[in-house]
Amino acid sequence: MSIWFQPVTVAQLNKDFDSAMIHHLGIQISQIQDNALIGTMPVDERTRQPFGLLHGGASMVLAETLGSLGSYLCVDSNRFYPAGQSIYGNHIKSIAEGIVTGTAKPVHLGGKSHLWQIEIRDNQEALICTAQLTTRILTQDNLKTQL
């Protein structure tokens, strides 16, 4: 059974965010599963730190993108708006080139908050980073006063 509030396609998601930061980092949504959102990010000049390795901040952008977008897709966007409240990650292994894939799965989908677990892996399935994201679920009516 799917966790998503309404059907959406990978093409729609990638088109909707074509002008956001995720576009500049080369992040692409690649799959929507019944209980997971999957996306990729290149390890290149946009996402590496000065020593040539994947920047930890880029990993966090991928993680927050997948978890926040996951929360957004789980709620009625006419009534609710998820906002990132807390993110933390552990960088397990470095990578200097290639593509990393993030998989976001919900741990908890409550009425006022969501908790997501995000794993980022390389092409050989080695764990690069693991992150947890908490999103606060705001009402559209009170969005400006609650931020």
UniProtKB/TrEMBL annotation:
Domain Thioesterase: 51-129
Name used for this protein in its record: Esterase YdiI
Keyword Ligase found: no
UniProt cross-references to CDD domains, sorted A to Z: PaaI_thioesterase (cd03443)
InterPro entries, alphabetized: HotDog_dom_sf (IPR029069), PAAI_dom (IPR003736), Thioestr_dom (IPR006683)
Database matches in Gene3D superfamilies: Hotdog Thioesterase
EC number(s) reported in the record: 3.1.-.-
UniProt GO cellular component terms: cytosol
Source taxon at top rank: Bacteria
Alphabetized UniProt keyword annotations: Hydrolase
Organism name: Candidatus Venteria ishoeyi
Pfam families referenced in this protein's UniProt entry, alphabetically: 4HBT
Tagged with keyword Glycoprotein: no
Family the UniProt entry places it in: Belongs to the thioesterase PaaI family.
GO molecular function, one term: 1,4-dihydroxy-2-naphthoyl-CoA thioesterase activity
